[in-house]
Amino acid sequence: MSYIKDPKGIEVRSFEMITEGLGNKVDHFAENEKPIVKRLVHTTGDFGYADITEFHNDAVNSAMEAIKSGCKIYCDTNMIVTGLNKIGLAKFGCSAYCLVNDEEVAKEAKERGITRSMVGIERAVKDKDTKIFLIGNAPTALFKLLEEISKEGAEKPKLIAGVPVGFVGCPESKAALSDYDVPFIRTNGTKGGSTVAVAVLHGILYQMFERDRY
Q: Where in this chain does the record put each Cobalamin biosynthesis precorrin-8X methylmutase CobH/CbiC domain (predicted)?
């Protein structure tokens, strides 16, 4: 039985197949957006992500600037934190965190009758070093983030990856991003998830590695 065993070879061939499969469906994306779309397809096995992914307000360049500054990245699930390339982020002085399992967050959420994701966002936006938000699970986290950044004096994130998965409030939370002048990347409709959020950030981060080679 003959098959590719080398991890790098598998990845290279995978992206060759993705490029072939997408054809001209990515022609309308900017050059720094195409690698992200391809990574979303690679992560999900779903070519449909080329149709539902949108980039707004120079999101990729904005995120790169934030990463170069050594920012913090807030994730709405610990799965996203676990999936991110920690060594790669550390090269730029960046770190990722999640607060949904924090005991104080859980207690406050229960007392107020809201989700832990919402309380986590409320706390994260108060940290001036947190400039990137990866929302892959909870529409309530995305809604709450938009509410918080609309307050007077609030700082706007350098990137919101609005890619929650699900049905209740999910498509609506992503659509709401259009009402805010903030750099964002979203996947329209019900598709998304923690792995998709990871893929968005990696699609940006790995381009930065390539640039640093030369």
A: 10-206
